[in-house]
Write a structure and sequence with these properties.
This protein is of the alpha/beta class. 26% of the residues lie in helices and 18% in strands. The chain has nine helices and 14 strands. It has helices spanning 15-23, 28-42, 125-131, 143-156, 217-220, 264-282, 327-347, 360-364, 397-409; strands spanning 5-6, 73-77, 111-115, 136-141, 171-174, 179-185, 190-196, 207-215, 228-232, 241-245, 248-253, 289-294, 323-324, 352-357. The strands form four sheets. A six-stranded mixed sheet has the order 5-6-4-9-12-14, sandwiched between helices. One of its GO terms (cellular component) is Golgi membrane.
């Protein structure tokens, strides 16, 4: 039996990692133009094709016993072929394309998530697109939100490829079904400005100014256009930051600024989720809306952290009892669940359904499914950095979209 493992959080990633993410952003004007086209032509009909909504806020859908918690379970072997490859889905980014970059043990693609008390069917692209006809989904958050969005686009490719097909696209339109998927890069969910690229320890982590009561307009201004909004964030809150509320400095996390109270990342995570969910619930648009909060997926760095020789070399999922999650990440998940509950209460009577996608336990059991060094080479570095935060595609992240389909249409 494997010895219990300690999960290490991803702290202070290099500034090169930051530049990579910004490199793939569309200019704001281009994204806005895409959304205008989406609103004008991509969502015809607005006929309610979804089944009646459940009042339950757990991940249960039509035809399933509500006592079944789809988020409690285990990973079981699935000998079937992978659902897609980098040939059938060219949208897979090089950082997640573990097959292309030589991950030696491909067993990580041959597992599926099985809840304790029910079966979770594999994602059915035709069924999903049929139910989503005339609707739209937005993923809001950090690179793990984009990781899930890319998984969804790849799963849907078996039935329809979006147009235009572009690797850097932020809006994917499925013209035959009048369905659209959009991604909004917003790692803090609120307005954030990088004020020092090197950061207080000169490690390249940066120093950020976070306006915790101001949702990031890059996504919040468009929230009312979408039927479904999936919100997920977490890893960027480890970066040093100073906090503002109503324009006033109130504290920081890891900023090392004299006479500024360190309120820790818990403070910023809580208020950022509070502001973001309030904005998602209250967004104008005149349509019913579903807001899904996806909890954190822990990293699996062993024997160090990202910048200190940490790696993830295990080749099979863990069993319950084999793992010990970092206490800070437990607290981050708890904060997300609490802020979800508060937003759910505030949403009552507003035509907004709130759903919690509590993936933390399931993803914590998959140390085998990260890219590690088997990802796109970074020419500015002497060696490929180990990535034990994101998820190989295809792989464990696809289970999150199995859950998404089940939560939305049963």
């Amino acid at each position: 039996m494997l010895t219990p493992m300690k999960f290490h959080v991803v702290k202070l990633p290099s500034i090169a990692h930051c530049r990579r993410h910004w490199h793939y952003m569309f200019p704001a004007a281009v994204l806005t133009a895409c959304l205008v086209v989406l609103a004008a032509t991509g969502l015809p009909g607005r006929v309610p094709l979804m089944p009646p909504l459940l009042t339950s806020t757990t991940g249960h859908g039509r035809g399933v016993d509500r006592s079944c918690d789809i988020f409690k379970g285990e990973w079981v072997r699935d000998p079937g072929a992978p659902r897609y490859t980098n040939e059938t889905c060219p949208v897979i980014h090089g950082h997640y394309d573990c097959m292309r970059y030589g991950k030696p043990d491909l067993g990580f693609i041959r597992w599926r998530w099985r809840p304790d008390e029910c079966e979770l069917p594999r994602f059915d692209a035709a069924r999903f697109l049929g139910a989503m006809r005339g609707k739209s989904v937005a993923f809001v958050g950090d690179s793990l939100a984009r990781n899930q969005m890319h998984s969804l686009v790849c799963l849907l490719a078996r039935t329809e490829r979006p147009a235009p097909w572009t690797k850097a696209g932020y809006v994917y339109r499925y013209e035959r079904h009048g369905f659209a998927v959009a991604d909004f890069w917003s790692p803090f969910l609120v307005r954030a400005v990088e004020t020092d690229r090197d950061g207080p320890t000169r490690s390249g982590a940066g120093l950020w100014s976070l306006h915790l009561d101001e949702p990031d307009a890059g996504w919040a201004a468009h929230a009312g256009m979408f039927d479904y909004i999936v919100v997920s964030a977490g890893s960027w809150f480890y970066r040093p930051a100073v906090f503002y509320e109503r324009g006033r400095l109130v504290g920081c996390s890891g900023c090392l600024v004299p006479n500024v109270t360190d309120l820790t990342l818990r403070y910023s995570l809580r208020l950022a989720f509070r502001s973001a969910l309030r904005s998602a619930v209250g967004a104008p648009g005149g349509r019913s809306r579903t807001v899904i909060v996806r909890t954190i997926s822990p990293s699996h760095y062993e024997n160090g952290t990202r910048n200190e020789d940490g790696d993830c070399v295990r080749t099979r999922p863990l069993q319950r009892g084999e793992w010990e999650m970092d206490e800070e990440q437990k607290e981050m998940r708890r904060i997300q669940v609490e802020e979800f509950a508060a937003a759910e209460a505030a949403a009552r009577g507003k035509g907004v359904r709130m759903l919690l996608m509590d993936v933390t336990e399931a993803m914590a059991l998959r140390p085998d499914a990260h890219p590690s060094k088997y990802r796109m080479w970074e020419p500015e570095k002497f060696r490929v950095s180990r990535d034990c935060l994101h998820w190989c595609l295809p792989g464990a992240m696809d289970a999150c979209n199995d859950m998404l389909l089940h939560m939305l249409i049963g």
